Amino acid sequence: MLFNSIEFILFLIPVFFLYWFVLAKSLKGQNWLLLVSSYFFYGWWDWRFLFLILFSSLLDFYLGLTLSKTTRQKDRRILVWISLVVNLGFLGFFKYFNFFIESFSQAFTFFGYAIEPDRLDIILPVGISFYTFQTLSYTLDVYRKKMEASKDLLSFLTFVSFFPQLVAGPIERASHLLPQFFKKRKFEPNWALSGAKIFIWGLFKKVVIADNAAILVEGIFSNYTQQSSLSLIVGSFLFSFQIYGDFSGYSDMAIGLSRIFGFDLISNFRFPYLSQNISVFWKRWHISLSSWFRDYVYIPLGGSRMGKWRAVINVFTVFLISGFWHGANWTYIVWGMIHGLVYLLYFLSGESKKEINASFKLSYLTQTMVTFLLVSLAFVFFRSPSLTDSIGYLKGIFLGEGESTYFLSSTRHVMISVLAGLGAAILLVYEFAADRSGKTEVLLQTIDVIFIALCVLFMGAFKNHIDFIYFQF
Q: Among the residues of 327-441, which ranges form H helices?
């Protein structure tokens, strides 16, 4: 069930009505409604996935309770390892089993031995990477005594399965989101209206920016051997805007929906393409994931406390794991390695700790453009189905073997290209202005909602009905 679908609207309206007009005085009733709705929402893809998320939730809930009652450190360590092994075991099996089997077979083939891999028809549960990390952060925080274990099973189950952010984040910390299920929620028109505005803006990013750009991106990447250098460059730039509009659009819709129901989620993006280096980029891109890796991987590995070269190893390890988290393909691992290597250049030179004032200076613009170029070129690996295709695409950019210019092949494609470019510019200007202005009057917010909704209605690429990119992760 996609946010940009009729099915979701038909699902949302009765849930909203029951939540605020029937169960407004019952906190427990609201939580029950959210839990049932969230499980229905998740089961819409495949009802069998419900058993997995329920098992994972129950496991971490009772492990958390046991951790809170256990004082012996050895026993506590065993309990947290059970959570890590089981949760990461499920994630590894569903997401990476076939990848490891095929890589193992290819390794032996390289040395002259032929091994036929036995693939399983494994369906990847939607959002498993997101809710796995969310439940793990809860268990780890309870183990570290950074938060008290929850004694309310209903609230905990709802926290894990909360439908606005269930399948593609933001990856919420229990310390931030879980307490909100214990507090009585009152309908506040201003808060709900701001949520509607954020949701509509996220929908604009998805169906106007991302889905229109996707038409050109698919055409260019699927036929890259016949494209000119200019076409391939445009394709890589458009994919950068596509994935940003797609993923940040989902995050905005999740944040907006949560506000409509009286909740507050963390921000997941903060103008990443205005970053002057890779270090700043990762402070602004997929913030909930990068901060998760910082707190639960980088710092436990020693962070920068054990010397520069140990910090270098830790940084590269985090980026390698980040690439692997995104998918069972060597392209994602190489993508993570590229970001890790570029990040280390700034890290070793001390640039990672510098925040350049975002003014229109030549140095700032130059660094921002270079950073965007590096990010776009790295995204070629992210978008391509294989390393061979990635290298072939980059080779086409620099050697220009193709002759076709796909994005100029017809008037329709020209209009889509212009639309995507204008949409990207509007996106950046609007977000920057909204961030600087702070609170907005109700009337202006209402006008914003209506205006953005009209843009979505008349410019959205609804016929393509493209899934969110991060659903596959």
A: 330-349, 362-383, 387-399, 411-437
Record the pTM: 0.85
Residues with active-site annotation: 326
Mean pLDDT over 367-393 rounds to 92
- Concatenate the DSSP letters of all residues of 2-62 into one string: -TTSHHHHHHHHHHHHIIIIISTT-HHHHHHHHHHHHHHHHHTT-TTHHHHHHHHHHHHHH
Q: 277 by DSSP, 3-state: which? A: coil
Distance CA 402, CA 394 (A): 12
How many angstroms separate the CA atoms of 30 and 86, rounded?
31
pLDDT for 157 beyond 90? yes
**Which residues neighbour 472 within 8 Å (Cβ) at sequence distance 6 or greater?**
124, 327
Q: DSSP assignment, residue 124?
A: P
Residue 465 corresponds to which amino acid?
Answer: H
d(CA 389, CA 331): 10
Distance CA 190, CA 336 (A): 41
Cβ-contact 238, 420 below 8 angstroms: yes
Break the chain down into helix, strand, coil percent, rounded to 5: 75, 0, 25
CA 233 to CA 398: how far, in whole Å?
9
Six token digits for residue 457:
């209605």
The answer to whether residue 361 scores a pLDDT higher than 70 is no
Residue 113 CB contacts under 8 Å (≥ 6 apart), including other chains:
none
How do residues 176-225 score in pLDDT, each as one tens digit?
999 999 999 989 888 888 888 889 888 888 888 888 888 888 888 988 88
Interhelix angle 387-399/330-349, nearest 10 degrees: 60
Q: Residue 404 forms beta bridges with which residues? A: 227
